[in-house]
From TrEMBL:
InterPro entries per the UniProt record, alphabetical: AB_hydrolase (IPR050471), AB_hydrolase_1 (IPR000073), AB_hydrolase_fold (IPR029058), Sig_transdc_resp-reg_C-effctor (IPR016032), Tscrpt_reg_LuxR_C (IPR000792), WH-like_DNA-bd_sf (IPR036388)
A single GO molecular function term of this UniProt record: DNA binding
Pfam families reported for this sequence: Abhydrolase_6, GerE
Domain HTH luxR-type: 270-335
Species of the source: Pseudonocardia endophytica
Lineage: superkingdom: Bacteria
Origin organism lineage: Bacteria, Bacillati, Actinomycetota, Actinomycetes, Pseudonocardiales
Signal sequence region: none
GO annotation terms (biological process): regulation of DNA-templated transcription
Protein keywords: Hydrolase
Protein's recorded name: Alpha/beta hydrolase family protein
Length: 338
């Protein structure tokens, strides 16, 4: 799949970049804290999530002001400003849509669904909360905000450890670099502070759309108790608790999360055949089985090392493996079967 990038303008002239991938009925995806449409698409694990969700529908994501491809503006972060972003996307679509919020995007999605029930077919809430003040003790919160503000590099590393403890080293390192590239320290701090301030408890009862709340049992960024608050407050909401500690939806068992979401949205849920690799991925897998490093794979295939690393990561994700050794063992098994 390839994504297309466009722009919408808010009433005050703020320019917001959005990306679409796939075709069919729209699924608007309200992302968490920091975003970058292009860099996120280049991360194999994150792109794999979006491609899996977009099969059979049109997935629409956007960068909030000050993040990624959306320029920063001289306006403070607020729930009202967040809803204006979503209003511009809704106007661009011009039709009802499924709505999925993740992390900080959850209270935003709740507030939108409560205020605009006619626009939302189904609502999915992953890894979120209803009251940001309950996420962590004040002293911890102040420490994290201060770290992000004074030492953005170290702050992003610390938050990656919280957000994706189950991810492999490459994904975690890429996530930390990604956060730093998404915005400057001031914007990162302002949006993180907003996430602690958001409170939509009083709006839960106003949500009318069929709702799925999904949460990982050991989520270190958003306590599982907040998922219960969301599910208990929205009439008829379904709560699904998945194992794992990662807050980021594309870390940990991403495939099971995708299956749960697609099933709820009424989209086909299929298991990819374990041998369904592209011809180039099969070449890379063969070289992995020979013990080649990413640099050696790049040299053998005439590609750059970053592309080789991306191929290996996608193979690992597609096959559901955690290591190169598992890829090598799988190649050996395929040879025996063949």
């Amino acid at each position: 799949m390839e994504q297309s990038v466009g722009r919408v303008a808010l009433a005050d002239g703020t320019s917001v970049a959005y990306a679409s991938v796939g075709s069919g009925r729209p699924l608007v995806y309200v992302m968490g804290w920091l975003t970058h449409l292009e860099l996120g698409w280049e991360l194999p694990a994150e792109r794999g999530l979006y491609e899996a969700l977009a099969t059979g529908c049109r997935l629409v994501r956007y960068d909030r002001a000050g993040c990624g491809l959306s320029p920063r503006v001289d306006r403070p972060a607020s729930l009202e400003f967040e809803l204006e972003h979503l209003a511009a996307i809704a106007a661009e679509l011009g039709e009802p849509f499924d709505l999925m919020g993740t992390s900080m995007g959850v209270p935003v999605a709740v507030a939108w669904a409560a205020a605009h029930p006619e626009t939302v077919r189904r609502l999915v809430l992953y890894g979120g909360w209803a009251r940001g003040d309950d996420l962590s003790p004040p002293l911890v919160r102040d420490h994290v905000l201060g770290l992000v503000e004074s030492h953005w590099g170290l702050g992003s590393d610390v938050l990656t450890d919280i957000f994706a403890p189950d991810a492999d080293a490459a994904t975690r390192a890429g996530s930390a670099r990604y956060q730093r590239a998404c915005s400057d320290a001031a914007t990162a701090r302002a949006l993180l502070a907003l996430s602690y301030d958001l409170d939509v408890v009083d709006r839960l009862a106003e949500v009318r759309a069929p709702t799925l709340v999904v949460h990982r049992s050991g989520d270190r960024a958003a306590p599982l108790a907040q998922a219960s608050v969301l599910a208990d407050g929205i009439a008829g909401a379904e709560l699904v608790v998945l194992p794992g500690r990662s807050h980021l939806p594309y870390a940990g068992d991403r495939d099971e999360l995708v299956r749960v979401v697609r099933r709820f949205l009424g989209l086909p849920v299929g298991r990819r055949r374990p041998d369904a690799l592209t011809p180039r991925q099969r070449e890379v897998a063969e070289l992995v089985s020979e013990g080649c490093t990413n640099r050696e794979i790049a040299t053998r295939l005439g590609i750059d090392e970053r592309s080789a690393e991306g191929h290996v990561e996608r193979i690992r994700l597609r096959l559901g493996f955690r290591s190169r050794a598992q890829i090598a063992a799988w190649v050996g098994t395929q040879r025996e079967v063949g």
